[in-house]
Amino acid sequence: MRSGIDLTIDEWRSYLKESQEKPYLAVPLFRWIHHHHVLSFDEMSDIPLRLREKLKEEFRIDLPKVLDVQRAEDETAKYLMQFQDTDTTVECVLMKYRFGYSLCISSQAGCRMGCRFCASTLRGLDRNLTGGEMAGQIYAVEKDAKVSISHVVVMGCGEPFDNLQELFRFLTLIHEEEGKNLSLRNITVSTCGLPDQIRIFTDRDLPVTLAVSLHAPNDTVRKKIMRIAQAVPMEKLMDACRYYTDRTNRRITFEYLLIDHLNDSVQLAEELSFLLSGLLCHVNVIPVNPVKECGFERPKEERIRQFIEVLERHHIPVTRRREMGKSIDAACGQLRHKRASGALREERHA
Ligand code: SAH
Known about the structure:
36% of the residues lie in helices and 20% in strands. By secondary structure, it is α/β, with parallel strands linked by helices.
């Protein structure tokens, strides 16, 4: 059975046309699901009863179920969400900023990219999430926390560019003015750097912020920590990044994880400055968060400061990521998906 939350207004329209129904009902249908968040066709009072019965036979409407919420002292909350195939769960993180609420959502259950510092990839990829399931994380958290989310980062579990069509579907659903009507400018998508997909994304010309997880200024260092670097040489990645900035005239955020004595030397900071000089970008430095299976350490404050100073000296815009939710393992790279509820219980009690 198809999930009604995945259909865009255009798709509802085509469906209704093909079913010899009134195409203009696409808008109210979409509104019921994406604005009023009803979970049953029975509640759609302005949809003819006969059509509701038919829709019930073909579609389900469901939001991900909130299995668990952990709250940190800084008001960050980590949600464990379960999808309709009960084996699939992901985590997402609600953060409170001065400007409002931001949600970090997952794009896949698990991840097949294999970055050595990241908890999301430890068990590999379970499955892609649909666009509706990405949007559903936002609706479910808004319902649970009784807040309105104004910013979204696609930086939870998964590689969004490894699930590009569903990412596009998500962006259409969430931006639709009959639904959540979220501004695309308030959305950031982070990729480990898949060049072909960066180009496809560029050609869509969406005002979404692009973040690229760089973590090293050269192939030798990058290969030590990111499996994708075996397949994608730095040169190819930087070409795609330049394609993006040239075409869109928008700044790329480069994420740079600092790992003690691995990619955090002054010399590598110099190399990074050289690599990025003249490129429309911004560097976000993130001291690595501990993941017990990975065993990487964050550098001492002094080294972090020195690294940032080199970039500043070269006039590369740089910020240090504000760290939230560490006490509940909700920080970057610490999100996991859990395959079966049995495994989940085991881990909790371990
Ligand atoms: N697959 C995408 C999005 C998910 S990761 C990507 O790679 O960008 C989101 C960000 O968290 C990335 O920049 C990632 O490199 C970073 N990250 C992963 N593990 C981390 C860790 N242990 N500490 C700090 N940041 C981490």
